[in-house]
Amino acid sequence: MRLFILTESDFIQSSDIIYQKVLDIIEVGAKSAHLHFYIVGNQVPLAHQDLFTTYGNVTILKMHQAEKLMGEVTNAIVIHFGSELKGSSQFPHYFIPLSAPYLHHNSSLITRWRQQMAFKKYIKKAVFTFGINDWAIDSLRNKYPSFKTKMQDAWLPVSLLPKLEWVDLSETRNELTQGHNYFLSFTPIDNLIATLKEFSLFKKWQLTTMVLVFILDNPKQLAEAQQILKGYKFQEDIVLKTLDQLEIEWLAAAYAVVMDGIDFDKTSLIEWAVHYDIPLLLNENNLQPASWLKAGDVFLFSEKNALFNHLKLYYKDEMYRQARAKLGKEWLVELTEQRNLNHFVKIPLDLKS
After folding, report:
1. Cα 53 from chain centroid?
2. Which tens digits make up the pLDDT trace of 36-53?
3. Which of 22, 136, 237, 340 is the most exposed place for a label (fewest CB within 10 A)?
4. How many CB atoms lie within 10 A of CB 276?
5. How far is Cα of residue 115 from the mean position of the Cα atoms in its chain?
6. What is the value of pTM for the model shown?
7. How far apart are CA 242 and CA 106, in angstroms?
């Protein structure tokens, strides 16, 4: 069976997330003698191409090469994250949303409308749309109730993340924050000022070189954040990046990760941080399923000094920081066991042509 995995998406900004999911899919199916993977994309980085092709049953194709091959094969499956391949309509498609248009709050109305139309088209065309965890499937079913029957639970194990040594993490800190420890923060632009105020209290409490790295969803938010930072007392200790720049190493090298106002599109990042023993500070919200509450410290960021007190606690008590990271690791192991027991669809082994 030929599996064509498309590496581009209309809906997700971070290509690193897609490439990691592709690697997970390949790993799950690597020992299956009847599967051959075609990884399709015009801009797959050489480093990822090298990773993919360490498996003997993987071929890297440009889009035009894959389109040509579509007319020559008879047994194929298309897996995608929100894109399409010309000439593939005769083959079964499986859609794995890693984000969705309703999460792109800063897009223009016309952009969101076009993305909504494309998203629904992908669901209609797919044999199944997969939610790769309970947060994803619940969010998608609530937003698209008319497509519930076309959605299934599935999962991919977090098993092939890069093995990083202290030298790798040190190099990441050198490149990102000139060698300083940092909190990595996924914060909505509307909450940026409140977070900066809490960080100011932290900096005043303790003269420290700790840096706060914000990951913004898009360049528009980045420009807004740059305006907000003008005149900020500790702006030399703030780094602004966008989600499309995100690297897995940034999570692994963080002192702690702050997650504010998130939905299922950040769940892979939560799992990755936990995998690397990085503790999480999660803003309480009604979108987060109960099964994810043990991933980190969950509290209400809007309470006065709440975020400051947690940043201070993690900074001054290394034993507590390590203990919270350990609890997160135990949670991930338990979640993985539950997914196995629930017999969720295993991609790609359970897919049918």
Report:
1. 23
2. 999 999 999 999 999 999
3. 340
4. 20
5. 19
6. 0.94
7. 13
